[in-house]
Amino acid sequence: MSGNNKLSTALPNPDRERLKTHFSIPVEQHGDAWSSLWSTGTFLPWDRGLSNPALVDLLDSPTAPFKLRPGQTVLVPGCGRGYDVHLFATYGLEAEGLEIAPDAVRMAREWIETELKKRELPEGGKAVMKEGDFYKRDWEREGGYDYVFDYTFLCAMPPTLRPSWAVRMSEIVKPGGHLICLEFPLFKDPATGGPPFGLNEGVYVELLGEKFERVVRFKPERTHKIGEGSDHVSVWKRKGKESVL
To answer: What are the respective helix, strand and coil percentages of the chain, to the nearest 5?
Structure first.
């Protein structure tokens, strides 16, 4: 299968097995397991060093199913080094990144600070990092977010947590707001385990169909090499009455 060949090229079997072994522990301990990887800092195979070009192209597209406005809010859970947090901020959004690993938060803040020295953000743009557990509520912004971006976040958690992921998304995305999903890895057989755990279109539909309306789904022209030919972008609008404020 071409997808399996792609995975072998981009993420060698030893790396996949190392991740799988590292997370062969109770799910309650996964937060600490992610923290230990970031603390060591020598094995971060998911870190590509930049935002996925599929997201860049979507935000630049005149036909995107949403209109970015300065001062709107966006959350990037599991944001790693904060590439996407900074990217959203360059469009004038108040961007927040969430990480459970303290060292990931520290590294992201350092990286963002370096970028801000090169170029100031436009009016309304902010890039803020938060440390917290996505499934708890002590970190979240009052009133929710206009946008949430998920890439390599849903696939990082065991399938048993997927229903809880969907509930949290429905809680933090404002009515009328948008959840942007870069669906990955669609080429991976779910039976092979993870992380990353294999996904497919049906998983997203099942998880989000009740509280969200899918407004678009397409295969991006550009994406990271590991997802070429299989990655899809889907945008979901939160159902419910929008605020007039």
So the answer is: 40, 20, 40
- Using DSSP's 3-state secondary structure scheme, residue 116 falls into helix
CB 235 within 8 A of CB 66: yes
95 in Cβ contact with 127 (< 8 Å): yes
Q: CA-CA distance, 182 to 202, in Å (whole number)?
A: 14
- Cα-based angle 204, 35, 125 (whole degrees, multiple of 5): 65
Topology of domain 2-238 in CATH is: Rossmann fold (3.40.50)
Nearest to residue 182, comparing CAs of 62, 78, 35? Answer: 78
The tens digit of pLDDT for each residue in 98-123 reads 999 999 999 999 999 999 999 999 99
HSE at residue 217, side-chain half, CA atoms within 13 A, is: 14
Claim: this prediction has a pTM higher than 0.70: yes
Q: E strands within the chain?
A: 73-77, 94-99, 126-131, 145-150, 173-183, 212-218, 232-238
> What b-and-e string marks burial along 174-206, b requiring 16 or more CB atoms within 10 Å of the CB?
beebbbbbbbbbbbbeeeebbbbbbbeeebbee
